[in-house]
Every structure is written in structure tokens, then in C-alpha cells.
Amino acid sequence: MSSETAPADVAWPKPSWFLRGPLLSSGVMIAASAALVTELSVMLIAGEESLGYLGLGLSAFGLLVIFRARWVGLALTTAGGVASALFAAEYVGIWTVTVFSIFLFAKQGRHVLPATAAAASTLYLALVYREGGQFTAPTALVAATFVVAAAAAGSVVRLQTESWNAARQRATDLAAAQAVELRQAVTDERLRIARDLHDVVGHELAVVNINVGVAEVSLPAEADAARRALRSAREGLQRTLKETQQILDLLRESGAEPDQRSELPLIENVPSLVGRMIAAGALIEAHIDTVLPGLDPDVSAAAYRIVQEALTNAGKYSTGPVRMGISSTDERLLIDVKNETSVISTGTDVSRIGYGIVGMRERTQSAGGTINITHSGETFRVHVELPTIRSTT
Fold first, then answer.
1. Residue ranges of domains in the chain
2. Among 100, 135, 168, 303, fewest CB within 10 Å belongs to which?
3. Looking at the predicted structure, is the pLDDT value of residue 197 above 80?
4. pLDDT mean over 358-383
């Protein structure tokens, strides 16, 4: 899922260690196993008869299946406690396995009350029988009380976990809703910009293009130089109109893939850009590698626009020819534009000159490159290095 459709991960604290499911369940299983081992050791030392091990086996098997079939597991451990109370001569406290089982039972799901009533009453009656029918026998009362307490504790842990997960889900849903609202706001803003661009810039460019055409055909026959200049201006306006329409299409198509941007001017079109500017009277000495690396469409479009702005800026302020070089290394595209100028004073902060330089900086940064603009003496220089693949950082 793309970053435009997936909400950002919600930062959420972890629950306390004693509320984490796997860790807590493992601790309970270790305690139950320790109770079984203790009972087994006592029975072996005392030389218990074979029938006495029945309860131990039932309890052990119940622990094994408690996570797969919790009702079966609880029934087996309860039966194991009853069997040990009735048949084992040496009885340490196998009923504690039932206590651990009811905790795991309650922690896993609902219907805890009937399960607790059945397990507690069964153990209580079995131990009362073992104690000779004394209903106030301490062992029977303690066993029943511990079963009820363990069930309550397991239910509390389960409810706490469910509450925790519900709160986290609400936070995730809220983040998703906010992401949707943000995407909608971005889409609305794109459409607003597209409308303004179409209604204002597009309309004015179209009007200027018509007027330039009228001026061209209205010139006298001998005004060849002016006619060529107007023809060049009209061609430039038509290209600008076309590029403006492409930008409008990108703004309106919010789900456009990056490859669709390849319709915009790319670095391979720089020679024709230089040719048009030379034809319009600009003095440019261009040295462009005949073989340039295949570039990411975003980087290629950024490189074209940077060159275009650098040449335009040089055309405004240069007092001589503009020297431009475009070359490449294994991983970088190098753009260097220099011109002599006397308009910008040496002490001027070049980072504050017009929106053109700001635009070059922004395009370089978006493409993951570096730009160095210097004004030393009467030389103004723009040096840009771009990666062949757009940086994702």
C-alpha cells in the first residue's frame, strides 16, 4: 500500500509486562508445571500406588490442551484434582493446577462464571469428602476460594487487554480518518490551484499568443528580423501553453504515477532549448555530453527546469556569453552554468535574488541533489549535482 493511502503507524505504548499475553501465559504454565513436578516427586518418594497417579496424568494432559480446547483442558485438570483427592495417598495440592487452569480459561474467553462454579464446587466437594465430610475443612475452603480468585484475575486481565486493544484500534481508526481528510484537503487544494492556473495564467497566455500572431502577420514585408523574433516568441508561448496544460492534467489527476511526469520536458530536450535561445539572440556556449545516463523522470524534469532557469537568469544579467556544461559520473549528473555579470554587486546575497534561484534550490532539493550558487568578482556561477535516481529521504 502506498504512503498516500495507508495511514501512518500509530505510536502506542506497550502494556505492562504482566499483562502481555504470551509472557503471562508462559509464567502460569511454568507455575502449574512446577506444581505437577512437586506432586510427582512426593508421590515417588512415598511409593504411591499406580491408581494415585491418575489425577496427576489427567492434570498434565489438561494443561497440554488448555490453549486448544479450554473447556476440555479445564475439565481434565478439575478431574485430575478430584482423582488425586480421592485416590492418592500422598496429596500435596494438585488442586493448584486447576487454579492455574481456570486463570488461563478466564483469560482466553467468556462464560467464566459457570466454568468457575463447576470447577470450584467440584474441587470443594472432593476435598470435603477426603477430609471426612467436614464442610469447613481448610483445604476445601482454600481450594474453592483460590479457584474463584484465579477466575476473577483472569477475567480482569482479559478485560484489560480487550480495553487496551479497543483503545488502540480507535486511535488507529482516528489516524486513518485524519489521513483521509488530509488527502482530501490536498486534492481540493490541487484542484483549486488547477482552476486558478487555468483561469488566470492559461487565459492570459492564450491572449498573448493571439496578439503575437496578429503582430507577426501585420508586419511589413521587409521586417524579417522582427518577424523572426515574433515567430520565436509565439513558438515559446505555444510550448508554454502545452506545458501548462500538462501541469493542469497532473494537478487534476491526484493519483498519477510518477512515470506520467515523463511527458514534461526532460534533460534530453536541453539541446533544443539551447538552440531556441540562441536563435532568439542569446549568447550560449554549451558543452553537453553526447551520452547521458538514464535518469529518474523526476530528476530529469528537475534538471531541465534548473538549466532553463539558469539560462534565463544569465540572459537577464550577463554581459557576455553564457558557458554551460552538462556531464555525468557513475551516479551523479553535473550541471554548470557561468556568465560574466556586472548587475549584481559582489556583496549581494545570491540566495535572496528573485524567485528563479529559489525555484532552482527547491527543484534541486526535491530531486535529492546539491546546488552551489556563487558570485565571485564579475562571474556568476550555478553548479548543480543531481543523483541519477531521485532520493527518497
1. 17-175, 188-252, 265-387
2. 135
3. no
4. 87
Query: pTM of this prediction?
Result: 0.49
Residue 350 burial class via C-beta count within 10 angstroms: exposed 0-12, middle 13-18, buried 19 and up: middle
Q: Which amino acid is at 93?
A: G
Match 489425577 to its residue by C-alpha cell. 55
Beta-bridge partners for 318:
341
Higher local confidence (pLDDT), 327 or 168: 327
Q: Are 113 and 120 in contact (CB under 8 A)?
A: no
Tell me which CATH homologous superfamily contains domain 265-387: Histidine kinase-like ATPase, C-terminal domain (3.30.565.10)
DSSP state letters, 89-151: SS-S-THHHHHHHHHHHHHH-S-HHHHHHHHHHHHHHHHHHHTTS-TT-HHHHHHHHHHHHHH
For residue 333, what is the enclosing H or E element? Answer: strand 332-340
How far apart CA 332 and CA 347 sit, in angstroms, is 31
Could you give the 3-state DSSP secondary structure of residue 27?
helix
In the chain, the largest separation of any two C-alpha atoms, in whole Å, equals: 132
| Per-residue pLDDT at 296 exceeds 70 | yes
